[in-house]
Amino acid sequence: MNIAELVSSAxxxxxxxxxxxxxxxxxxxKEVFFHLRKNIDEHGVGLLEVNGLGKFTIKKNxxxxxxxxxxxxxxxxxxxxxxx
Length: 84
Description:
By secondary structure, this protein is an alpha+beta fold. Helices cover about 40% and strands about 25% of the residues.
């Protein structure tokens, strides 16, 4: 699965997305995930709630600290209930 396939799937089920080209929507998805990753990194350990999307539980994982890149994080995502 790739971004274009995800975008095509979303476009086929949501008429509001029809005005976006695959290229435009793919660029938007990439940018959103870039900013989401940045916010997760800045937030650190704990619960990060993204209104309209869901909650991210971020935990430090000390087992990977010897890699030299710092402690790895375990991130669990719980999406909000979807209503249409």
